[in-house]
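Build the 3D complex.
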Amino acid sequence: MKNLIGRILVGIAILASSACTKTDNYDGPNASLQGNILSSEGGNLLTSGGSTTIKLQQIGWTTPQTIPSKFDGTYEDSKLFKGGYKIVPTGGAFWPVTDTVTVNIDKGTKHDFTVTPYIVIKNFTHTLTGTTLTLTFDIDAPIIAGLPTIKDVQPYVNTTKLVGTGASIRDFSDLNAKTINKAFIDMSAAEKSITLTVPNLIPGRTFFVRVGVRLSDSFNSSNFSEIVQVDIPKS
Amino acid sequence: MKKLHKLIIAISVGVGTSVTSCQKLDIPPTNIFTPNIIYDSEAGVKSFLATIYTNLPIEDFKYRPDQGFKTGGNDWENFYNSASVTGEEVGPFGGMDIGGGFGYWPYGDIRNVNTLIAELPKHTAALTQNTVNALLGEAHFLRAYYYFGLAKRYGGVPIIKEPQDPAAPLSELQVHRDKEEATWDFIGAELDLGYQMMPETSDAGRANKYAAAALKSRVMLYAACIAKYGSTNFVDGPARAQGLVGIPGSKANTYFQAAYDAAKLLDGHYSLYNANSDKVQNYVDLFLKPSPENIFIKQYSIANHTAHSWDDTMSPRYFTANALSRSYPTLDLVQLWGNLSVTNDDGTPKRFNSRAEIMQGLEPRLLATIYFPGAMLRGLMFDMQRGIYPSFSGTAAAEVAKQPNSRSYILAGDTKTLYQGKQVIGFTGPWTGGDELTRTGFYVRKYVDYNKPQASVDLNRSEQPWIDLRYGEILLNRAEAAVELGNNGDALTSINLLRSRAGATPYGSIDLDKVRKERRMELAFENQYYWDLKRWRIADVVLDRAHFKGLMPYYVLNENKYIFLAEPELFNREYTFQKQFYYEPIPGGEIGKNPNLLPNNPNY
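Done.
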């Protein structure tokens, strides 16, 4: 018995001494990239879930990775491997960016993009009458020629500050959409001044609300307004 | 003495080795099949062909669009089909879960065909020239079938016509993608060879020359639509700029003409199944009995463990011996045949004495495609009932618009619950407690074997063949191509052949919308509509945050009548097709092995 234990111990000793002779001395993913997606019309491009992403392709690798943008038009990834990357913003409602930028990503790398939005939402107002919220806004296009058709406009209503496509209450949001299906150039001035209503909001609740204009580009992407807070008084 | 011994040993070893060894080591290996064993007899070639046929990308009962062509294991889950994301049905998918495909990449199978095509001509002595030609024709058909499975998913793919030599330099093995147009042209040419070389008839489950023509009509229609509609609705990217996806719009008519010509080749050789004068029964039997309409079928066998589970998974447990259903036709599909007459002129729901009255006056093909409330199967009734109204007043629209908690209906969580002695929900649903009972008020009838006794309706116990190519589809291909080419007269004839077989009123005139609608009705649940939506490039419009409806039967207690309300299907799921899904991404693993497959399709 002792003999057996002895042999097992010897075996373990041999295995232990022969294993792990090479330590993994490669750096972990400790580089980071962050920045803003700026709108050519001023400020950050307001985005939403499943909307604008930054596509990164590490040079020497075949599979791209993406960083989703935050709702305020910033983005950040703090777990990247150091190295040269080609980066480009994509997936949002802005004129496609064809120039891919090459950046050398290391700790604390910053890069801002400037994009031209398809549609700019201006003069966004909200008024509450009882439990009905009325939203008005005007739409404008920095570049009109070749603009994808406008599919629809709609409010986005949610109970948290994260509100947008895929993060909204359908009965208040998608069901109050207005179909447009028209090219911007064919829209009259009156049609570019839009009113949306959200009826039957629940008294005593707080909602976060924004509006979006959806276009028929490759992503069926939307331009968004800023987010406003709406408190429905208790009846 | 010792020396002598050593000498003797040395001599005997020397002589022994030189005399006995290495005389006949170069014999054919006895533990593997050499080319001669396979290719010198028709039986040998047949056994090789069996593998190639088995792996053919036939989108049959067992095809699961997000996982592939299933055998063994979970191949019984026949409700995971493309119909359940396109609005033909609602089913187990939570949304548009199949847009990215499953990374189909059958170059191993294509290599098998390539090997067959390379070897066969060397064996004319043993097989005769005629047999070799017929087999070669079959091989070209099979190769086209595999490439079609690739082209409709990825657009342009590498066209490999000869078996690659594994010892070749990497630069030769890492092939580039061909253009999309070249890929479709190659498939068309392969099918022409198949048509020229194959005989007129074949064993069931194998292709003949008309199967090649039939497939060509399907393939060329696909290519034509990509040229026509894909040149206006597309996602841009490097792959498109290089022609790896997309075909110039100017090519559309050439392909439509090719589709039309190919479909016409079947004239007089196949016909629609019309054996029974009862139009409903006739349409039911078309999918269950041998018929002059079947051009190319896939067979199943319990003994060989290849049987499918259609009967067991399309009907609920109430009619079967085991398992569950999860495929429910939508009211949206049913309404292709026209609105059901369930509401009076004043908007109040019509009162029915029995559920079965809903079926009165409906087109036989519709009744043969879908089980309505009140229909019978294996001596039992489809007793769909969503709940009970103690009494009902007002219009259907007003009732459906109410919040669920302000509706006066009685619902139940199971089939045992009674209300004043009446069962609240039917044994066959609908309910929201799970998804093994209908969520729409309908069940699938097409392909369901009504003759099977309930006790034998079990998993992997269904053997009715999948009809991969049937003359009905060819008439639709022909009509669509004809309308696109401006030959409406020919299209009208084809469509009316189908409509009179279906028991529908023949049309007096025809247009593209009617042809497409007829296609949806005739080919419902046959795994065609998903690809139709894609090739017509309307999937992103039709499936844009789409929700689908059901038809809920209720019992009105104080009147002892039934009413039907059109409501969102009970899970009210949402389906959105992204534009990038018109092409699937080249599988990442393949790009890892061969970076020359880049650029990937747009937006991936």
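Chain A has two domains: 31-115, 120-231.
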